Amino acid sequence: MTQIETPKVVRKKLFSPIWLLPIIALILGAWLGVKSIRESGVEVRIHFPSATGIDVGKTLVRYQGLTVGKVVDISIDDDLQGVNVDVLMDYRAAPFLNDNTQFWLVTPKASITGVEGLDALFSGNYIAIKPGDGESRSVFEAARETPVMLPGNDGLVIELSSDTLGSLDVGSQVYYRQIPVGKVISYRLENSNTIIFNAYIQQKYADLVKVDSQFWNVSGFDIDASLNGINVKTESLAAILAGGISFSSTSNDSATSGQHFTLYESKKLAYGGKEFTLTAKNADQISEGSRIQFRGIEIGRVVQSNLDDSGVKFKAKIDHQYAELLTGSAQFWIEGADISFSGVKHASRLITGSIVNFMPGQGPAKNSYNLLDSAPEIVNADPIQLTLTANENPNIKAGAQVRYKQLPIGKVTQVAFGDDFTAVEYQIDIDAIYASLLKKNSYFLPESVFAIDASLDGVSVTTRDLDTFTHGAISLVPSKSNSLMISGEQAMLYASAEEASEAMSRASQHTLVLNSADAAQLSPNAPVYYKKMQIGQVNQINWHQDTDNFKIHIGIDNTFLPLIKDNTVFWRNSALSINAGLTGVDIEVAPIEGALKGSITLGLLADDQQANSDHLYENEKLARTQAVAIKLHFPAATNLSAKAAIRYQGHQIGEIDKVTLDSNLQSVTATGHLYGDYASQFTQEDTRYAVTEAKVSITGIEAPETLITGAYVKAQPGKGNGQKQFEFTGTQLAPTPLSPGDVSFTLTRGTLGSLKIGTPIIYRGIHIGKVDGYQLNSAGNAIDFQVHIEQAFAHLVNQSSQFWDLSGIKVDFGLFSGAQVETGSLETILAGGIGVATENVTSNTNQLSAEQRFNIAPKVDPQWLTWSPIQQTP
User: Fold this and answer.
1) The whole model's pTM is what?
2) Looking at the DSSP assignment, which residues form a beta bridge with residue 159?
3) Contact present, 68 and 107 (Cβ < 8 Å)
4) I want to staple 769 with a disulfide (CB 3.0 to 4.6 A). Which of 198, 382, 451, 789 is the partner?
């Protein structure tokens, strides 16, 4: 039988994948269309004076060698004044088409300075663009000349101003030490009498141009003719043909783009100087380039002359190193060759022309001076006579020159001893024309024939002339005072600038006197520091015989006077300080000057602390704790050294500074300091001091820590009158003061035995007191022991108590009873002890008093050990 299959029903799909193809094609077409529209470019219009060199479809627009547009149309403008060039710019150039954007035509141009637009010679003319800022726009006016800031040049562009163009042109080189570092890129006429040059300096040389650089024209030849011959200078062949500019460089700040400079006609006119104006009725003998001289040395020159309603005005300049000589009362006059029957003076001026002579004055410099026809009368005035004083003669002889900035201003007329022969005096004459230089507090220095100045920066060697070698020379160092010296006054001739500086510094310092037990390893001129900054120095150190003390005079600069207050302290510094501990070693080395001469530090305590400001402390710790100096005397055999601690109940309250053997060879004197917080309690008349050192015995080691740290001084406070010297001939202290409630009394026995200070008093094996001290009684036949019973056990002892010696081992040997050995504990066998037993109950009638005395029995009575009163705790 045949089986029939059941038919399957298949539902038809609503979407076929074939429809994806037209959708993708539609999206791709839309994207291509948008991209085509967006990248179609931006149309702008540029107005040119003419269409020469511009072709439709050929002339391109370039930016730094990259094509960013193309000329698509050229038309004549409506006013017939030029042409409109339509340019299709790349869409990516749209952000740069703004108000300040510039376009210009680049064409090849050859001149003596070189070829410009060389790339246009091969590829054809093109339009260059310089992007600018501002609002977006599409219409531009083409620049007639190439803009000053060329695109892509990251160097320095500066402005130079000159009265004439000379042989300079666009492309003329800018030189530095005959190396081309830039060029002139444009020039223009400004205000009808000034030419402004724009010069471009390459980036790698831009730092050479400083804010005070001087520029001068090096075009052509520089000829200097005189009786000494003819000197011809030129920068290079290119500068002769095409013109050139050179400049100087200093160590000042670098110039910035756009900075303005003056372009001088020559190097001589450009170099340095302070400018001013000279006014004269005519210019018969003076012209541009005339020299300004001072005592035969050229210090400046006339750089420009102009006709004025009242006569002639000369623009002059004095070199920087002599600018200080130009003062308010300075005078200038014309001086030429002097022809007389005795001969011709200054004959060279017959050829070179007259010069402008100069005489300094006083007061602030002015901008304008009168140019006199002849020398003023003051030139022939009497010299100013001064007396110089020096500690010794630095090879200065009569006839030696007195100079200012190496220019002679006078001479030495006499050298002699002072009236008391403690100093050397010099009589000097200063020419009257230099009176303005002689100011109050001015001083003088001898000049060295040969001087070497060596430092980390190098070695400088200075030599002087033969006259300095034979007679010596003196230099004037004027002060800043407004008052002038007059004839007959005195001044100082210091041996060196350092000595003068120190003397000037001392004159303006506040002087203090510090007391010290020794000279503190200080020497004159030792520095005084505050927070490691020098604020003064040591001026003088004096020893006073009556007090065996030193007075140290120090000077503090007036600037730091606010540091001198009631809480100011001073301490001396160590050349080398080592602080060693478990955390490491800290080494502090003083500066070289402080290490050689010693040094002092000024410090400030808390505002509410009163300091001992006239004392020089040994170190910072003693200063800040306001330590008080003391002297202690001990036997010569005492084992004590410097830096030993002074302690009370284990706490350090001071330290020993020095230990010296006395002249009697029987004692030593220990000088030290007590920290200020404890000084009042330990500088009393009955204060006791003792040396504590390790003692090894059968009972153990006392003060074992001194085996490592060394012996120290143990102190016990007093209550008497204050003093600072203490005499001590033993090694034990007075009894320790009793606590309230302790009971003290006296025990007596014939010998000291093994008893000592600290020997315990034992009641039924418990320590209830101890021996505080002992001494031989007045009769000399027994030892009195001062003892006390502690407050907690005072009720266990009364007038019925008995005391016996517990020390050592006691043997009682009898013929019939045999030997009986009696011992205490191991501690009492080794260290000793005193036993006590009480028969009766303690009451008000049998209480102990300080005058109570008991004998110490050599051994215990067996009956005492049976006593057991029931004592009531108070």
Assistant:
1) 0.39
2) 198, 260
3) no
4) 789
Extract the tokens encoding 605. 């305590």
Q: Strand locations in 100-150, DSSP E?
A: 102-106, 109-111, 114-116, 126-130, 139-141
- Contact 476/403 with Cβ under 8 angstroms? yes
Tokens 């036949």 found at: 781
Tokens read off for 317: 């300049």
The two structure tokens encoding residue 435: 């009176």
User: Which single residue is written with the structure tokens 């200054």?
Assistant: 346
Which among 603, 612, 609, 656 has a CA at the least distance from the CA of 633? 656
CA–chain centroid gap for 184, Å, is 46
Q: Profile the chain (874 residues) by mean pLDDT over runs of 10 residues.
A: 64 65 76 64 87 85 85 86 88 84 79 51 76 86 72 75 82 86 85 84 88 80 48 53 78 83 78 80 79 81 80 83 80 79 67 80 82 73 85 86 84 87 88 81 83 59 70 85 83 82 74 82 86 86 82 86 88 71 59 75 86 83 82 83 85 86 85 80 78 67 70 80 55 58 89 84 90 86 90 90 78 48 54 86 87 90 89 78
Contacts of 803 (CB under 8 A, 6+ apart): 747, 761, 834, 835, 836, 854, 855, 856, 857
Q: Which of 378, 381, 370 is nearest to 316 (CA)?
A: 370
DSSP 8-class letter at 871: P
Cβ partners under 8 Å of residue 334, min gap 6: 280, 285, 286, 354, 355, 356, 357, 371, 372, 373, 374
